[in-house]
Write a structure and sequence with these properties.
- A hairpin with a 2-residue loop joins strand 5 (183-190) and strand 6 (193-199).
- This protein starts with a helix and ends in a 19-residue tail after the last strand.
- By secondary structure, it is of the alpha+beta class.
- 44% of the residues lie in helices and 15% in strands.
- It has helices at 4-24, 29-34, 36-48, 55-61, 67-79, 86-98, 102-105, 124-130, 149-156, 176-180; strands at residues 135-140, 143-147, 161-163, 172-174, 183-190, 193-199.
Length: 218
């Protein structure tokens, strides 16, 4: 079966949703009102998530016991009660897959081992290759860079781009190698383009969290 993981994920989502409905059925009217956004988000994920999931993403989500819960929480974080679009879920999927904390915040499915390379950064090259056909509005160490879909393709072939640290007359050339090897620190989708903050990759020794630090989803 070519779409085996997509089918399995669909079944897992239905199971997760059925478990949630069992929980909701025990709540009082006032408790249901308090959980209205959470319930609505779960319904939106159940109805629309599969339209943004390919086999690779489905296989990754199946690593978790409750992928519906993961995407519900991320959808609430990014969209609230707004109308959902396919690209909203595409970004949410990328965000949870890239987030180093996802595997520590949500239980894995039985028999699944943690991913060993979760600390590897996502490079600009990888990000552009994952999101073809859109524009990129970037803030880089060399200044602002704007890439149309056509410019993004040329960048991947090795063509340099212009960076604007301030006024447009002060444009600086940024080589493809320099930009493509930078790390994506933050990415948000709006309209028809990605807004990206990137930086040079540095080797950083992570500091252990202090007792008063909470855990938040990326």
């Amino acid at each position: 079966m070519e779409n085996k993981y997509q089918v399995l994920l669909f079944d897992r989502i239905q199971e997760n949703y059925a478990a949630f409905t069992d929980q909701w059925s025990t709540l009082s009217p006032s408790e249901l009102i308090e959980k209205a956004e959470e319930i609505y988000a779960a319904q939106m994920v159940k109805e629309h998530l599969m339209g943004s999931v390919d086999e690779q993403r489905a296989e990754w989500l199946l690593r978790f016991k409750n992928p519906l819960e993961i995407m519900r929480d991320k959808w609430i974080n990014e969209n609230g009660m707004e109308m959902v679009h396919d690209e909203d879920f595409s970004h949410a999927l990328w965000a949870v897959m890239d987030c180093q904390d996802t595997e520590s915040l949500y239980p894995l499915a039985p028999g699944v081992e943690p991913t060993p390379d979760r600390d590897d950064p996502v490079t600009v090259r990888e990000f552009i290759e994952r999101h073809p056909g859109v524009s990129f509005d970037m803030m880089t160490p060399g200044g602002f860079v704007y890439l149309t879909p056509e410019h993004a393709k040329l960048l991947l072939t090795g063509q340099s781009v212009k960076g604007y640290p301030g006024e447009i007359e002060y444009a600086m050339e940024i080589t493809a190698e320099e930009l493509l090897n930078q790390e994506v620190l933050n990415a948000n989708f709006g309209g028809d383009e990605w807004h990206i903050l990137s930086n040079d990759i540095h080797e950083i020794t992570p500091k252990p969290p202090t007792m008063d630090q909470g855990v938040t989803m990326c």
